[in-house]
């Protein structure tokens, strides 16, 4: 079988972000584009001992080009002499499942083919990222090295072999590489069965409890059917949009109040089920709903932490610590204080949580972008969050709304919203931020929306494990009485840039109207940063 050394040249713009490389699908379909990047990953992770004794896993969320990309990667892996490649059946493997596979099988790493919550299709988005041997996303040091390799590449290695069957479990030998197609559900299901009391959850469904889970035509459909229907005994119609589709059926697979409209409408209807949840394209995010009730990600993290020891078998010995991203609401801070455990505030990006978990400093973590997880893996985990909530509901015997209101009664409420201004001109948005930075030193003491600014800065994080420093992680306006305004530019999309505006107002009064409290803050912030002047915008595309 012929090993091919294919001559190539560097391609501009192959710089991975916090979640790998994301571009338009047609970009990945260009000649040499995927091959260059995958070979650059191999070049970056080569420890000098070659790959003959190493195993990598590969799988994706089923979006357009997933299957074709896997075939190319198989050839490149064989061309590089990889010892073994594990492929999720049908090319499917959720991001949490990839982490579980890497950790349970103690393998070298894995490649996830996904653009997460971004739309799929030939004219939409595709992505690829590398997860290391701890099961978590590649470190910034490694992603920078991968990028450097993309700028130096002149050859990629492949092998002359036809497409293989990835739809049936089994193995095949390609050159010196064993390619094994595995059940993509097995390792993940075994992982969560160790954490949650499935017998107790079965009794919850036997009691007449009604749940609706929206897989958004994405990767969690098969996982949800296996866990909720087959193992916990929920009715088959519990899972909607449960078959992964290449274009997600036209759904934008981002589990929020705007894009999960079908689920939201059914949970706010007269005959609503007791509980509703959704996950995103690759299965690492979650949306939690009760009857006519939305749980913010910050509250969800705090409530899971509050009840974990008593309600969830895997945390019966308590939590070592809680971590949240800087823009996430401070609700978890108050729970951590009550439990007498540390609270870590990190930049956005799951890799920062991974360092804390690897060091044994934190058990549960989350970020405001509907991501929650724990140290059972090294990725955020949508279905884990849903199982946490089912466990809390089963343990307390209360409704979602009752659980949240009791939490507010005990800890107070962080009124919280995120406003996303999408597809802004990148240069204009950067200029706006540069202008704002020049004003930060003079903002302390200024009043905005009837609240005095106590601190205005740009968040910087020193990792307590390795001492690394991450600067420029978002602008913070800390206001009196526990209120905050956070501003970040996000590059998780593939076109333009997104301004994320996070608004938080803390109060012991938890029955006020959230829009009445936060709208003045939003309007004042738009004026302060001169959004209309720089970007010709006043109103967000999405408000959650």
Spell out the key features of this protein.
TATA-Binding Protein; 34% helix; 544 residues; 7-stranded mixed sheet; alpha/beta; Alpha-D-Glucose-1,6-Bisphosphate, Chain A, domain 3; 7-stranded antiparallel sheet; 17 helices; single chain
Molecular shape: globular
Give the rounded overall mean pLDDT: 95
Instruction: Please bin the fraction of helical residues.
Output: 25-40%
Strand content: 25-35%
CATH topology name of the largest domain, in short, is Alpha-D-Glucose-1,6-Bisphosphate, Chain A, domain 3
Strand order of the largest sheet: 2-6-5-3-4-9-8
Q: How many E strands?
A: 27
Low-pLDDT stretches: none
* CATH homologous superfamily placement of the largest domain: Alpha-D-Glucose-1,6-Bisphosphate, subunit A, domain 3
Give me the secondary-structure category: alpha/beta
> Number of domains in the coordinates?
3
DSSP summary: helix tally: 17
Q: Let me know the largest β-sheet.
A: 7 strands, mixed
Distance between the termini: 54 Å
Rounded Rg = 23 Å
The CATH class of the largest domain is: Alpha Beta
What's the architecture of the largest domain in CATH terms?
3-Layer(aba) Sandwich
